[in-house]
Specification:
103 residues, mainly alpha, 434 Repressor (Amino-terminal Domain), 56% helix, globular
């Protein structure tokens, strides 16, 4: 998985979770202590996201940070999406899995 693909997945998942929770971009921005414009850019895949911001947004949404990085294309099949990611992405995901307990 390329960094661009991962960023697109994160963008899609942030918006999906926000809508599922019934939040506006403004409400999510306030919960995550971010500007609404930045949330809008993230959801439209127009801005990069740091691990810190990913954790803050996940916390505001009440989800695990790693869940925002998951590709739901294999959802409902009982299968996980193939793991074709570089070592840097694997490392970042492993950090995210442990970050929620530290927040």
């Amino acid at each position: 998985m390329t960094p661009d693909k991962l960023r697109a997945i994160v963008a899609k998942n942030i918006k999906k979770q926000r809508v599922l929770k019934g939040l506006t971009q403004q409400q999510l921005a306030e919960l995550a202590d971010k500007e609404m414009r930045y949330i809008s850019h993230l959801e439209r895949n127009k801005a990069n996201i740091t691990l810190t911001v990913l954790a803050q947004i996940a916390d505001a949404l009440g989800v695990h940070p790693a869940s925002l990085c998951e590709d739901g294309s294999a959802k409902g099949t009982g299968l996980k999406p193939p793991k074709k990611v570089g070592p840097g992405i694997d490392y970042a995901i492993s950090i995210l899995k442990g970050i929620k307990a530290e927040i």
